[in-house]
Amino acid sequence: MLIKRPSDIASSEITSEAVYKDRRRFLQQMIGLSVAASLGGYLSPVQAAYGGKPLTYSKAKEFQLDEKLTPYKDVTSYNNFYEFSTSKQAPARMAHTLKPTPWNISVEGACAKPGNYALEDLLKPQALEERIYRLRCVEGWSMAIPWVGLPLASMLKRFEPTSDAKYVLFETLYDTEQFPNQRGRVLDWPYVEGLTIAEAMNPLTLMAVGLYGEVLPNQNGAPMRLVVPWKYGFKSIKSIAKIRFVEKMPTSSWMKASSREYGFYANVNPQVSHPRWSQKRERRIGEWGRRETLMFNGYAEQVAHLYSGMDLKKNF
Ligand code: MTE
Question: Can you tell me the distance from the alpha carbon of 214 to that of 55, in angstroms, rounded to the nearest whole number?
């Protein structure tokens, strides 16, 4: 990111413990009532604990985390969303200009079913699930967030990618009315990111439409954003309006901004420093002190095989 050094943030602790405990108690009560145990989770009740539109989802048992959740307030008030500002506090204040409904996604490139899809049609037949993932920003801070979404693979498969689809490119909406900072030149707009097809199809990769049981707040990338938990946060592109299946490795906005600092893979790796700072440790937002950064952000078991034989210093 375009910052002087890893951030060292005194973040709010406000209500963190209370919010977390309330939620745990509530969820525990629901387990007994669940009619969806056979789905491997349970249906979440309609709830509006945080002020957003509640979602119905099941809890993905295999994607939970035995770590304290980052308080909702921090998740939604400390954001990187350069289409609004390079300040982390500004998106929460400014993101009302984004209009996430109606929302269309243009699907292009090497697939049998390209087209312009309404978001609700892409979500309709599928059950949403909640997964708690760590998000580790390249700047040195991290969060643990309960996302709600769909496995990206299940969304992509319906477009029937062909054998030429070696990579998937994602683009954020380009609209200077909705994203005022796209009038400036801090990045080459629209924001572009990419994954290999194997990364995109990995069961961990999530297309998120909500967090904390509610639709995504605008500042977190409404109405639909990626969450790729083993990669630095900048890969998790927000407010996606275009998906393109391509043969060649896409050049992401951050690679364009500084290819020396930001590679295509951007896997969380404590052994490979950013040219301007170490990646060995991180600061969990809402907590004091620092913790060790884990290889692949703690998801090595699920994803290390994707990079076997690869020099991760070169392919950073
Ligand atoms: N997507 C877009 N379109 N624009 C951005 O500026 N910032 C990235 C990523 N996705 C960004 C983006 C970075 S650097 C991070 S760390 C995460 O979003 C932050 O997500 P969060 O604000 O939901 O925590």
Answer: 5
